[in-house]
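All the exercises in this workshop are built on plain-text protein records. Sequence and backbone structure share a record, each on its own labelled line. The question running through the whole workshop is how a given chain folds. The record below serves as our worked example for the rest of this section.
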Amino acid sequence: MDSPIRVLIVDDDALVRAGLTMMLAGAEDLAVVADVADGAEVVAAVNEHRPDVVLMDIRMPRVDGLAATERLRARREPPEIIILTTFDSDEHILRAMRAGAGGFLLKHTPPPEIIRAIRQVAAGEPMMSPAVLRKMMGYVADTGVDPRRDRARALLARLSEGERAVAALVGRGRTNSEIGKELSLSVATVKAYVSRLLTKLELNNRVQIALLVHDAGENAQD
């Protein structure tokens, strides 16, 4: 049997931490290795417990979850991070995604969806819900003179035609399997393309590829 996905829970509400721990205990392939109450404790907990995925709240008293996410994703081998919160403002979503979070869920998300998101993010596939994609698209539409746009377009100009096609589909939230079917590529080939994209664009996960595509304004049509 493969090793379970190791999960760290970060939330300042003890009841939320206990509830998530009980919920995840029902999934045989997941193991909660620790929980902490503040973003200030996250780095030490990651060093000690080596989680694969961190479930991260945003609002915490000393160091918020967005700052903690930025700290973790700056590490050499960072864990994957899912923001799990009651707040879904554009600012929160965009900052989390730019920091390298692999998912963004609201706390009222049904338990099976949270479990599925952990598995998906641990496997390297971001959890980008339709609501989050709509917010990203709205962000691009509402900022006609975004200073990030020229930079995003310059970065995408480095890509080959095939790489750009894969990047565009990543920007629409497609999985590797869906990209493969649309472009008539094997899943292994799609994974190789994504790896090259991360290297060329100097990014660390698929969500950041998607955000770059949105910044460039290249996903207007699906």
Q: What stands out?
A: The mean pLDDT is 84.
